Amino acid sequence: MDHNKKAHLATISALSAVCIASGTWASEQITSLDPIVVYSFNNDQFAEDADRNMSIYVSRDSIEVAETGNLRDVFAEHASVTVGGAMPIAQKIFVNGVDALNLNMTIEGAMQNNRAFHHVTANAIDPALLRAVRVDAGIAAADSGPNALGGSVAFQVIDALDLLREGETLGGKVGLSFDNNSETFTQSLTVFGVAEGFDLLAFAKNAKGQNYETGDDETITGTGANLQTGLIKAGYTSASGHRIEATGLVLKDKEKRQKRANFGGLGGAQQALRTYDTLRKTFSMRYEHMEPSDLFDPEIVLGFSENQIDAAKIEGDPKTANSEGTSNTFNGKLANTFHVREDLRFTTGMDFYRKRSRYDDESSHLEERSSNIGAFGQLRWDATSALQVSVGGRFDHQNFEGTNDFSKKVSGFSGNSSVAYEVIEGLKLKGGVATVFGGIPLEDNYTFNPGWDYSNLKSTRSNNVTAGFEFERSGFSFSGEVFQTNIQRARSIVPGSVELTNMDIVTKGFNLAAGYGWGNGRAKLTYSNTEVEVEGNAASSYAAQDFAAPLGQVIAFTASHRLDEYNLTVGGNIQGAFEYKTGSGESDRLLKGYAAVGLFAEYEPEQIDGLKLRLEANNLFDADYADRGTYGGDFSDVQTLKEPGRSFKIAGSYRF
């Protein structure tokens, strides 16, 4: 492995005719519709592995577009990955409708999903830190980790080797941006270098701003930015190829927010503000070998992640208190890939985690814990030049501890199988099935109750199936897939009681994509149609909360074109959704359709090497909307957290 370089349809048609060169791909000349993976993950050395054929890869080119944005911008071209919430503290990821809490999510191998409060996100990362992202929708390989009920998401962050040019030993980058809607001013500094096998990168970023205005010219209080990010990543590579990396990542957001941070208001009005003090930490150590042999291709990971959410009391509101929710995970993985033959690889190993979640206020000190140890194996076989097969399984043993000294041990097997077959040149059929043991998940610690009755609580399991096709020829690309995830015995509570119980959740639907790439540009349209059921009935956003979201029909259109003679890239994007009725008796409001259009231009002056200037017009037509993945849009008494209205952003970076 080379470690150093590894809305609506009418609106879409109109924008395409006017600006065929628009899109969120803005960084470099793009000549292929294939995802560009700058860095491969350790077990992705063979891009045609059957279990990776259904995966979504986000390239470095796409990530660079999102550097001054947020997590939604990272997945801007993938309608099947929805990021709800208009600001980082509230943004939640849904993959094929499944909440990321039910995915195995890692940053540099450190497990995330540290639940602390359902009104804020459990997964936060600054896009400026990313170098690669992989989403395994529905079917996750056994070596992706435990509890991957709806798949997995893996993030990797930048290091010095990513950024240094050939012959350089030291470098840096400064960045500035300003958004006129929220008056958010962002500054960042990155320095990096190498010496005698060692490499080091340090990154710091600060973003501060005011409340933003929606497309209806309404100022949403409690939305001002106050985010600080820090990263240190160090590595050492020996002359014989042994590499060890250490990563430390911290994100801090302390600001006055709505009482419920992911709401725009309740009962038709904005809410009183309270201070949310959030601190998120991720630390990891990783060992791998850059020149593996047939029998020695190891991966060793130790990780620790923690979310701390402190919510202040609102004076005069007896339902609030000065409270603190802390949740963390310590995990490890030891694996090796045996290259049995050139066409046959077997990855096996073990992993573990220890999770702890605690809630504290003036009168309560409550805690849940769980620990898990698992063993896994995944066989990847290139049966013929046209046929790839992947089969794997794992066994997990979990010990769960409740808030009232309750303890229960559960165990279970997981299995997966994927196949990809190239019928004719350019046309590939692919599919997979998986059954996944999920154990007993920890609950949101802001809802902990010392009187909970755990006696009827059972371990969770999911059954997943996906099947589809992809076709590529002469620059054109078409793909489609159907999917279903059935999460059985998901943790729940009997309404009006302290008895914990289980329920079944199903997400199902299909995804479509079409694209075209030409010499200096590309365009891509994706469409996702997702339905959610709880206990066999159509689900509201409340009924499916923390498990899934009723998304309906979501679209994403991106395009870009590079004008070499001017060192200029221009493009734009559309993020949209069609009108949708959940079908649930609980929902009393239609989810409105919307289309938000963005344009950009990025210029790299020839006279100043390393300088990059970017101008964005976001939500150009001032659409008044909440993203489909934002909670509560189907309830009339919830004022959903709407997205910012029209805004212009200017950004600049200088690489020295």
Please mark out the parts with pLDDT under 50 across 5 or more consecutive residues, or reply none: 1-40
Mean pLDDT: 91
The number of E-state strands comes to: 33
Task: Determine Rg (CA atoms, Å).
Answer: 24 Å
Instruction: Describe the main β-sheet briefly.
Output: 22 strands, antiparallel, barrel
Helix/strand-derived category reads mainly beta
The total of helices stands at 4
Shape: globular
* Through-space gap between termini: 28 Å
Secondary structure: helix percent: under 10%
* Proportion of beta-strand residues: over 45%
Question: Which key terms come to mind for this protein?
Answer:
single chain; 656 residues; mainly beta; 22-stranded antiparallel barrel; five-stranded mixed sheet; 4% helix; disordered N terminus
Topology:
Blueprint (H helix, E strand, L loop, with lengths): L8 H10 L37 E3 L1 H6 L5 H4 L6 E4 L7 E4 L2 E2 L4 E4 L2 E2 L18 E8 L13 E7 L2 H4 L6 E10 L4 E12 L2 E11 L17 E12 L4 E17 L4 E4 L6 E17 L8 E14 L11 E19 L2 E17 L4 E18 L4 E15 L5 E18 L2 E13 L20 E14 L2 E18 L6 E19 L2 E14 L2 E2 L13 E12 L4 E10 L16 E10 L7 E8 L19 E3 L6 E9 L1
Parallel strand pairs: 5-8
Antiparallel strand pairs: 1-7, 2-3, 3-4, 5-6, 7-8, 9-10, 9-33, 10-11, 11-12, 12-13, 13-15, 14-32, 15-16, 16-17, 17-18, 18-19, 19-20, 20-21, 21-22, 22-23, 23-24, 24-25, 25-26, 26-27, 26-28, 28-29, 29-30, 30-31, 31-33
